[in-house]
């Protein structure tokens, strides 16, 4: 049973599963913005052009308010998902130690300046670098 739970945890918290879940949730929130834009702005403009129907300031204000609400909902959803993923990533990296990086520089044995590890001559003192000091 422990092995099964461990495998499920590895599957559920794998990068591509988390990315897909975030994509679905953000897509749903974004569809709310698109729906609100269509319902509150595009359709009234089309109705005005086709039928000449006029709108009161109260109606226009209501449309703008609905659209603003959809945008705020999207921003809140994105922020909450960001915080959740940041926390999950922090938990997943907890206890893992970083591997030491390979050195990219070396010290010139003649002038003691720091130089690129691939250098064959020191740019400071122009001395030829001995082989095998990488």
What does this structure look like?
This protein has 3 helices and 2 strands; from the N terminus they run αααββ. The protein is mainly alpha-helical and 134 residues long. A hairpin with a 6-residue loop joins strand 1 and strand 2. The radius of gyration is 30 Å and the shape is elongated.
Apparent shape:
elongated
Structural class: mainly alpha
Average predicted confidence as pLDDT: 87
The ordered H/E elements are HHHEE
Rg estimate, integer Å: 30 Å
Write a compact overview of the structure shown.
The chain is mainly alpha-helical.
Helix and strand topology:
Layout: H1 2-12, H2 15-51, H3 57-93, E1 105-107, E2 114-116
Antiparallel strand pairs: 1-2
Helix pairs in contact: 2-3
Primary descriptors:
two-stranded antiparallel ribbon, single chain, 3 helices, 134 residues
């Amino acid at each position: 049973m422990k092995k099964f739970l461990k495998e499920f945890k590895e599957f559920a918290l794998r990068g591509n599963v988390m990315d897909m879940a975030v994509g679905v949730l953000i897509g749903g929130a974004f569809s709310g913005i698109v729906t609100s834009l269509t319902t509150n702005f595009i359709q009234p403009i089309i109705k005005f052009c086709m039928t000449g129907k006029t709108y009161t300031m109260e109606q226009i204000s209501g449309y703008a308010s609905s659209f603003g609400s959809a945008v705020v909902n999207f921003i809140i959803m994105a922020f909450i998902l960001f915080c959740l993923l940041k926390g999950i990533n922090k938990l997943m990296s907890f206890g893992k130690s970083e591997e030491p990086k390979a050195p990219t520089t070396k010290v010139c044995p003649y002038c003691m300046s720091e130089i690129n590890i691939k250098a064959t001559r020191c740019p400071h003192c122009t001395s030829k670098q001995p082989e095998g000091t990488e």
